[in-house]
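Hi F.,

I've been meaning to write this up properly since the lab meeting, where we talked about keeping a consistent format for the predictions we share between groups. The idea is simple: the sequence comes first, exactly as it goes in, then the structure tokens exactly as they come out, then a line or two of notes. No screenshots and no reformatting. I'm using this chain as the first example so we have something concrete to point to.
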Amino acid sequence: MLNLNKMAVGLLIASFAVFGAADAQPKRTVESAYEFLVPALTNGTKGALLNQKFMNSETETHTEPLVTAVQGNGCQMVVKLRGAHEYSIRIDWSRISDIANPSEMGFGSMVTLRGTVEDASGNAFAFFFPSHAIADRAVTAMQFIKDGCDPGKGTGF
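Output, unedited:
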């Protein structure tokens, strides 16, 4: 009887190990956040709000995507936009004060970055994603990068 109990416990532990490993999420890193953000921005962005001007991939006169390139490394991200002119926006995540949760707009789900965004007048810049689900994931990735770049993170506050 004792051997059967030991065997049952062993099988139970083994099944938890197998099924628990299958459900494990990949570890989040700044690199993995950029691995999600780069294609989400270059392939999925439907519009952007820059210098209080709405740029829309469907109404611009060119056929290239609105976001033509994204380069992210650590606390710096550069986004290149094509509208009537080409724009390059530099985002220093340590200087972003807020990443607003997605809000539904008629055109898509808007994610707003507040703080200092170089080459964008004012203090906000927004991306429009095609769905709320992608926008939620983008906010999670952006917030992860921002939190890692917080100059006060070592203070405990």
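Notes:
The first strand starts at residue 47 and ends at 50.
The first helix runs from residue 2 to 23.

If this format works for you, I'll send the rest the same way.

G.
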